[in-house]
Amino acid sequence: RAERSAASLAVRVGSLDDPPERPGLTHFLEHMLFLGTEKYPKPNGYTSYLSSHAGGSNAYTADDHTNYFFSVAHDGFPEALDR
Length: 83
What we know:
Blueprint: E1 4-11, H1 25-32, H2 45-52, E2 56-61, E3 66-73, H3 77-82
Antiparallel strand pairs: 1-3, 2-3
């Protein structure tokens, strides 16, 4: 049985997709995703959940895509994926 699980999601939108009048928009939205969702509205709830299950996350914005990834103790994976 695995002790840790991880997931990564790449979205085909990067900094080259920023509108000329909004440079940095893609990178800004990358950070906004960690502030909560409709289902899990508590700001930083995702980070807190991962931390309480020996995990962590990160993301980056490239020219042509944005990538989000996390790792977590295996027993916390299903809820981490839902969040």
